[in-house]
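User: Write out your own:

AI:
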Amino acid sequence: MARSNILMLINNSNGWISFDKFMYVALYGKGCGYYNKPLSENSFGPFGAKGDFITAPMMGPWLAKTLAKNFIDLTNQAPNYLKNKLNIREIGAGTGDLAADILIDLNNYRCLPKTYEIIEINKSMTRLQKKVILNKLENKSPDSSKFIFSKIKWRSNFIDEKNYFDCENYSKISGMVIANELLDSFPTKIFKFVPSRTGGLGSVLEYGVSIDKDQVFLCTEKIASAELHDAVAQRFGESVQRGYPWNSEKFGEWCPYIPKWCNQVMNKIDWGQLYIIDYGKERYELDYPTRVESTLTTYRNHNQFTDLDQCIKNPGHQDITAQVDFTAIVDELSKLDRITLEIKTQAAWMLDSGVLELAEKMFFLENKKLSPRDYNLLGSLQNQLSDATMGQSFLVLSAKKFFN
């Protein structure tokens, strides 16, 4: 279905569509996109051992414990009239593991939010989330599982097909907003920079998708639109100012939807904090001259492919992702009033939030004998902190909006 929709779109667009349009239909097309198609009764969709990848919340409770600790800190900092009125909003909740573990932890500390709102586009994923969350609550907090579950509210209007990632219809919130492993799957444009003979700003090409005579998808290029050209020219100028000009051909991505999304999401926070946790880098790293390849990646059956031709195969049946430009987020949020921003690696953020102390409390203070499951949990913590895995490749952006 996604393939036929893309073919129709190409045929109605003079034989070529930009990559972000291809990616949008492949991932989010209603009823056929990778994240927006029906799931069978017992399927976890793209997640888990039988899917294409595993997210951090599925590896263990550590990300949830860190976010729960930060929500408790947020509650302690809240004005008195807000302390019992703070909410949590998670945008794109995956399997529901993160929500379940956060709520279990907050219940243990008697610091549950007024509501836990989940924004989800796929009704099948909503059913999966309800099943996963309820099972976890009944196993970990049987006496209060129904009460905790009653705190969760689902909303399904995350993506508007006309305006893509439009958040204007979100309600206002005081509390915490979480976007975990979300922005790296926003549709992105792919550019190719070609320097001039003198090493200055030369030409900018945009990659898109066309078809051959056998209806096979092809990655092809065109002269970039004025909007994309200006975005690349700005980044080229920034690199020159840093003393690292682009002297050779370079591929990269530019997502036109992230700035607007971040602005709208933050404007819906009356008081509180936004956490963006994702695979990405700041621009000085993304645009370093030796980084000449696109960061675009697709995942199928736990295999990673970076070739552009692989990324356009089997639309609707594989994940497509690119590293998040965190500088674009900072640039946009810095324009807003009363915002305090902070970026850390995932490892630094978790360590600074006291995750090792939480682990020590779980396993070591009572001198208990560790079970195989305990060792697995400690292994998952190491994986999320290690430089070689998620610790450095994931960044955490915190945006606070406080007032007295």
The radius of gyration is 22 Å. The chain has 16 helices and 16 strands. Residues 123-140 form the longest helix (18 residues).
